Each structure stands twice: as C-alpha cells, then as structure tokens.
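It would be a great kindness if you could assist me with a short task in structural biology. The matter concerns a single protein, recorded as an amino acid sequence and a row of backbone structure tokens. Could you please explain, in whatever detail you think fit, how the structure tokens follow from the sequence? Thank you for your consideration; the sequence and its tokens are set out here:
___
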Amino acid sequence: MHTLTAKWASGIKTVIAIVSISVYSLVSQAAELPDFTQLIEQHSPAVVKITAVSKGSAAEPQRSLPQDMQGLPDIFRELLERRQAPRDRGSLGSGFIISADGYVLTNDHVVDKMDSITVILNDQREYSATLVGSDERSDLALLKIDAKNLPTLILAKDETLKVGQWVVAIGSPFGLDYSASAGIVSAIGRSIPSAHSESNYVPFIQTDVAINPGNSGGPLFNMDGEVVGINSQIYSPSGGSVGLSFAIPSSLAVDVVAQLKDKGRVDRGWLGVMIQDVDKNLASSLGVDKPMGALISELDADGPAAKSGLKAGDLIIKFNDHAVNTSSDLPYLVGRTAPKSKVPVVIMRKGKQQSLNVTVGILPVSPQEAASRPASAPAQNTVDSLGLIITPLERSQRGGAEAGVVVQQVKPGSPAAEAGIQPGDIITQLAFSDIKSPDDYAKIVKGLPKNEPQAIRFYRQNRPVFRSIVIK
C-alpha cells in the first residue's frame, strides 16, 4: 500500500511537471508573437476609404432593339428602353495619405475611368478628390484632396524585406472600414500576369495577409510602421482571401509618385527587345552553367538595343550592375531606368562574356494611354472658371479627337468636377462651339454666362461624350 501510494504521488509530480513545461512553452511562444496594437492605433488615421462612381453615358454601345417598337405592348417597350438607359458604375477601395496637404495614393484600378472620386477619412470626413495622375502598368494612382494638416504615412524608399517577416495591412475589405489583418512575407520579386502581357514592371511582394476586395490601394506595413507595399491583387478561385495576396513594393511607388506629381504620367526606360527564359539545355549552348539571364529573341530595328549593338541571341546576365536571374527581372530593371541614360550591360555572345554600354530609350505608350494622360507642358497655370487647368492636344494624345484641349487638372467641387470631367479628357466642343486650341477654349470660357447649363463635348478612352456644365 505504501509502495503504491509513493508511485501514485510520483506520477502526479511527473504530470504536474509536464503541464508546467507545456504552460511555460505556451507562455514563451506568446511572448515571442508581435503586438500590432500600437502600430495600428498610430497609423490607421492616415488610411482612407475610397469610393468612385462612373456615370452612365449615352456614348456607350447599346444593345440592338427590335426594328418595329410600335408593335410591342407598352410594358415590354418601356422595359427595353429602361435597359438601354445609361447606368452608373461604382468602385470601392482603400488608400493612404502621403502628405499633410492632401496627396493620397491608391490603385489605378480603383479609380480608372471614374467620373467622381470621394476620399473618406478615419474620422468620417469626406472630400472630393482630383486625379493628379495614374499609371496602369504599376497599378498606382495619385489623388489630391483640398485639406491641410492631415496625418501621413511614410513610404519606405528601400523596403529590404525578407521572407518570413511580419507585415500588417489596413483597409476596407468589402466596405468594412479600417480593418486590420496580419501575416508574413511569403515571397519577394514575384512576377504575375498583368494587363500588359508583353512585360511586367512590378516585382510584387507576396504575403499570406488576409486581403479581400476593398483592400486594394491600402498600405502594407512592416513592424517599424513604414509602408513597404501597396496592396494590389489577390489570387482566389472564390473572390475572397485564400492566403495569396500581392503588393506593389514601396521603392517602386516612390518613383511613380514623384513622376505623377511632377508631370501627371510615368516615363519608363525601354530597350526594344523581345526576351525569353533559358532552360538547362539552352544555357549550355549559350556558355553558362545554369539557366539564367534574359535571352534576346528579337529586336526592334530602330530601338535603343539595336542602336547600342545588342543582337538577337545575346543573353543579358547583368543590367546596370544588377544581376538578371530570369527574363522577368529585365523589364523592371529597364523600366525604372531614366530614359536617355547610358548604362553598362553584361551579355553572353557565342559563349563569351562581353560588356557594352546601352543608351536606354523611352517606353512608347499605346494610343489609349496617350489619350488618357495629360500633356507635358500646361497651357495655363491657374484654374479657370470651370475649375480646369488645360494643356494643348499633342499628336500622340488624340485618341479619336482631331483637335481640342486636354484636361490636366480638375478642382474638387468645381463645375467641371460636378459634370464628371477628369484629367485626360479631351475637350472638343463647349457651348456648341468647336475648340481647336487653348486660345479658342479661353475665349469661349470667358464668354460663358452664369447659372445656365452649357453643353460640353469631350473624348474619353477614344469615345465622344456629351455632358452639361454650369458656372455658378
């Protein structure tokens, strides 16, 4: 009996010891987990919610109606006509304030082709926003609101992220304002398909942070409270988060923001080459011991690469002192290089390594991009009575318009803003008078009466649109 009691007591001590070790282990692990509360409390006031609306336009293509409408009963005719009526389209996203005087950064796809943009602050104040400029290739857009002394966030100039590092996102998923989620960096330098399939200019940060529709444009923080990424895309078969989200690196955003603020557009470097990856067998024939670099398969005969001496069959292994590990590395490296710069390039040609200097060109823009972005030099420096700053129409910007002026800036709350005019629109007619130059525009605006609706015709995305505008 005494022996059994001693063994039973010994067993209890062993169990207590195991439980104590387990509890200590759990407490120790909890102590190692990061506390996000201070970061979120300190930085969430600078995160904003963005709503945008695109007004329906009669210029949009219509579905065909029966040729003889008179033969239809009234109820069916009214139903068909109602379905033809222009419909508004909405967009919801996030963003964050980067300067105390009202500059806001978000995604291009949140505000693309929108007539009115509203920025809602953490304290529920609302502001109409002006689109300063946007860049489809990086999916970034810069907005401006008329406010001062705003809370701001810092864009890290060099995010220096590592896989496994903790990151935090704040945004408005599904419209749920200022929601926070956390996770780790899953991969860096990720190349994913984009609208511009010929090349990808963004080395995305991949995370497992819960990102959902509505988070787009919101900040991704490191544990120091710096913005290291702008949440942009998710991979999901269901439309919700499955732990695969992608953010635009802050180091790329810093340059894009500077260009958008300076000239309303982004100019990128260009080589004029078609490239491909290299497999094991091809690598051996090119004189390298493993798959690496970007193999030039074709050149633009008049492009910068051809003029600098590069040839089809050259394998680019280093560009401007940066290693080119795969073909997807090259577009980003070239794109971030200032046009007209001369940079060193290391290649493998016929099994031998060579170095040469290449003068980088400027990436040509598509007609759609040219039509949607402002010209390089403004024709006026002050806002007119419509609330606009306009520029001359350049040949590369016409986008369907033979003559007119290009909208560079729209003042929030102005007659133009209320009419849905936005930067990049090409005004061709005002008060039924044709506009062929900035001088024509200025004379017409000067003679407009107040409190009387006037017809204004402009081109947007190669399509003509009529709206009414009133000077109050």
Residues 57-64, 373-379 have pLDDT under 50 and may be disordered. The first strand starts at residue 47 and ends at 54. Residues 190 and 204 are 5 Å apart (CA to CA). Residues 2-32 form the longest helix (31 residues).
